[in-house]
Amino acid sequence: MPAPSARPLRPAIFVDRDGVLIEHRDDYILEPAHIKVYQESIAACLRITLESPYALVVVTNQSAIGRGILTMEQAEALNQGALKPYEEAGVRIDGAYMCPHRPDENCDCRKPQPGMLRRAAAELGLDLKRSFLVGDNLSDMGAARAAGAKGVMVRTGLGSRHLRWAGFDGLVADDLADAVARILSGEWS
């Protein structure tokens, strides 16, 4: 009897949290009042849920944990608070991954390392080669490249600053809504 065929891998749209789903702060998000959701990002994520074959996966560096500023439990509660308006609007978030390490710990999960993307791919059955990572930081673009996904830099959050500093020549969108529209149209296939 032949072995059952493996379930086909899905592509994903990975999104950074701060600067893409919620407003970036130059200091840490330490309490729920610091969370300011981009309304246009909710609509964009709803399009992913309702109109596409893509999984939606959040990947975020949160070094405040490793620095002792927040506990893992506090950070997870803040992350859930940031994602709650999305879920209440009907967005299906297939996974949320958080790196708690400081930059000097040299872990494999802190972006620009690809660990969170690879872990999500293994756990959720994702095809990284057909996936995108939308972020506002050069570290997001590095993680996408290292994982074999396409990186999309948005101008929200730190994006405009990073685009000026680095002369970035990859895929660029105004915000998550623009990125999702272009991904779903096949423009960046």
TrEMBL record:
It is an enzyme of class 3 (hydrolase). GO terms for biological process: carbohydrate metabolic process. The keyword Magnesium applies. Gene3D superfamilies: HAD superfamily/HAD-like. InterPro entries: HAD-like_sf, HAD-SF_hydro_IIIA, HAD_sf, Heptose_bisP_phosphatase, Histidinol-phos. The record marks 110 as: Contributes to substrate recognition. It is found in: Cytoplasm. The record marks 60, 111 as: Stabilizes the phosphoryl group. Mg(2+) binds at residues 16, 18, 136. Keywords: Carbohydrate metabolism, Cytoplasm, Hydrolase, Magnesium, Metal-binding, Zinc. Its main location: cytoplasm. Its EC number is 3.1.3.-. Pfam families: Hydrolase_like. The active site is at residues 16, 18. The keyword Zinc applies. GO terms for molecular function: metal ion binding; phosphatase activity. Its cofactor is Mg(2+); Zn(2+). Zn(2+) binds at residues 99, 101, 107, 109. GO terms for cellular component: cytoplasm. Belongs to the gmhB family. NCBIfam families: HAD-SF-IIIA, Histidinol-ppas. This is D,D-heptose 1,7-bisphosphate phosphatase. The lineage of its organism: Bacteria, Bacillati, Armatimonadota, Fimbriimonadia, Fimbriimonadales.
